Amino acid sequence: MGCASSKTSDSKANRVARWSSTGIVALRDSKLKTFPDEILELGRGVRTVDLTHNKIVDIPVEINKLFNMQRLIIADNLVERLPMNLGKLQSLKIMTLDGNRLTGLPDELGQLIRLEQLSVSRNLLTYLPETLGSLRNLKLLNASNNQITYLPESIGSCFALEELQANDNSIDDLPQSVCNLIHLKSLSLDNNKVKQMPSTILKECVALQSISLHNNPLSMDQFQQMEGYGEFEARRRKKFDKQIDSNVMMNSKGLDPGVDS
Predict the structure, then answer these.
(1) How far is it, in rounded angstroms, from Cα 127 to Cα 150?
(2) Torsions phi, psi of 125, nearest 5?
(3) For position 244, what pLDDT does the model report?
(4) Among candidates 93, 77, 70, 89, which has minimal Cα distance to 24?
(5) In sequence order, what are the beta bridge partners of 196?
(6) Could you tell me which of 114, 176, 186 has the C-alpha nearest to residue 150?
(7) CB 197 within 8 Å of CB 226
(8) Are β-strands 140-142 and 163-165 bridged in parallel, bridged antiparallel, or unpaired?
(9) How far is CA 17 from CA 52, 67, 118, in A?
(10) DSSP-assigned letter for residue 192
């Protein structure tokens, strides 16, 4: 028994030493039910935490000790809520929380001013907080496969946003502020309830190259009659002309505007 205990201690010590040396904590598929205390004890030395595919329910409030952390990946767990002090993670650039049981995101999310990628797909979210608009460095937002009925008006203040994915929700229209997203390249809203788009989105979102709106009430005729459709179509074709080869079919889903009539 003593030898087994000693080996376990050595293994844990080696693991913590490795984390401390690299700044990377990777505990995928480790059958964890709680957030490991030894990670929190490393404090400012942690840069990346990946706890994908475990059974973690709670993220402790002490996570604010990891204030140098840049990547937090806790996908495919059982997390139901995020701690209120999450906003203290001022160095965070990437947060991936796909496949959990989140029903809401705290307003403090807006304090993550360096956040560039936020992925919260496959949860139970019914809304996104208005403070989302404070994320001025956000480039990717993935909120697909939730129960969201609308996007906040403040999303138009996410000026760096390049890709917005909100497939498989219950969104019926988009806020007019989306037209402020001049760097937006890709918009995916498959399997929603979108009946109409902001009338000037194709004209004002001057970088928009890809829109996917399959299985929405919006018709192809409506889409083609929108102001700026010709310019959007030119951008779309220019993008895909670079990718087309003998193995790509012109009628594939990726090459059409994504509007079902």
Answers:
(1) 7
(2) -70, 140
(3) 62
(4) 70
(5) 173
(6) 176
(7) yes
(8) parallel
(9) 21, 19, 30
(10) S
DSSP state of 59: -
How high does pLDDT run on average in the chain? 90
CA nearest neighbour of 165 among 98, 212, 205: 212
What single-letter DSSP state applies at residue 5? H
Please state which of the ranges 73-77, 168-172, 182-186, 223-227 shows the lowest mean pLDDT.
Answer: 223-227
Cβ atoms of 208 and 183 within 8 Å: the answer is no
CA dihedral for 152, 126, 27, 1, sign (positive or negative)? positive
Nearest-angstrom CA–CA distance, 125 and 143: 8
Q: Which helix (H) or strand (E) holds 2?
A: helix 2-22
Q: Model confidence at 13, in pLDDT bands (50, 70, 90)?
A: confident
249 CB-contact burial (10 Å; exposed 0-12 / middle 13-18 / buried 19+):
exposed
User: Which residue in 63, 22, 73 sits closest to 39, CA to CA?
Assistant: 63
Give 116's Cβ-side CA count (13 Å radius): 5
What is the rounded average pLDDT of the residues 223-243?
88
140 and 117 Cβ atoms separated by less than 8 Å: yes
Distance CA 55, CA 58 (A): 9
CA-based nearest residue to 257, from 231, 228, 226, 232: 232
Query: What is the per-residue pLDDT across 165-218, written as a single tens digit (0 to 9) for each?
Result: 999 999 999 999 999 999 999 999 999 999 999 999 999 999 999 999 999 999
Domains of the chain, CATH where assigned? 125-261 (3.80.10.10)
The lowest-confidence range among 49-58, 174-183, 218-227 is 218-227
Q: Judge whether 210 and 239 are in contact, CB under 8 Å.
A: yes
